[in-house]
Amino acid sequence: MSQMPLTHKRIARILGVSETTIKSYRRKFPDCIPVASKGKPIQFTEEALEVCRAIRDLFSSGLSIEETHQRLADRFEFVAQPVFEQQEEEAEVVEVVLPDDYKQAMSSLATSMVNLSMKQEQMLKKMASIEARLQQLGVPDIAAAPQSSTDPVLEEIRALADRTEALWEAVSCSMEQGITVSEGDSAQEIDEHGRKATVHRMVPLREVISHDPPRKMLALPLLIQDNEGEYTPLVGRGNSRITLNDLRASLMTHFVEEDAYTVRWSENNSGWQLDLLQERAQIPHNICLTMAQTSTLRGSVMVIKDMTTNGHEITPGALQDFISDVYSR
């Protein structure tokens, strides 16, 4: 290995990356890159070069900062094991609120059921009383009497029994089907009220929600994050930084009629997705940008992390070329 001091610049030249990239490695992994001397310039040990080389390779493989830190701890003895705070997901709390008309319908149904039970009990008592009186009068059992009998008393008793049986079946059917016989809602109406019960969710939803982001977010500068974690600002005319509002206004101004862009926003757990769709173009140039808000030393910004055109991934340079072309129209 070369005897020259290992500075930021020297390590960057050996690894084929920028000096800013090496400095970003130190910010992301402050206790993993050994320092030999804290003078000016800062000098590093030979182990620091190997750590930076490993970080470069792991980032190129698509690993996150947490995963990279874990790999470094497994490979180098002087790198401590990372400690990550695990946040337990709160159980979703669902509160069911029933409308007032549904409560009233259920109350009416309960009252009707009580009335039916009372009527049933009264009917049973009357039938028992009639049978007792018939036995006292010496009237034979109706069921045992021959059907061909022409005794007028038996005929009248049979008619009364048939009417009583029909009424009993009607009451029993009403009890089984839950049909009210007094004033109030029908069973069908009560079921309809039940289906209209309102459900309020007390925790944020994790599925994708389609709506525009807050106005403050639309006014934040746009940056691109490359595979090495470096940030590059998107610039417009005169190399001035642009915001989401600037980008949308430029698209609306320079692309009209069949080439007009439709802007669609959606939010998920990782941030925001912006779909720029040429829905009427014969050869559409659809763009999808995935971004999230983050804070820097200069303030809040919107960082574009993933970029695709017609479903194919594009580089930050290609996106900047497209924006430059828009502003040059």
UniProtKB/TrEMBL annotation:
BP term (GO), one: regulation of DNA-templated transcription
GO molecular function: DNA binding
Pfam families in alphabetical order: MerR_1 (PF13411)
Residues annotated as domain HTH merR-type: 7-71
Organism: Halodesulfovibrio spirochaetisodalis
Top-rank taxon, per record: Bacteria
UniProt cross-references to Gene3D superfamilies, sorted A to Z: 1.10.1660.10
Protein name from the UniProt record: HTH merR-type domain-containing protein
SUPFAM superfamilies documented for this protein: Putative DNA-binding domain (SSF46955)
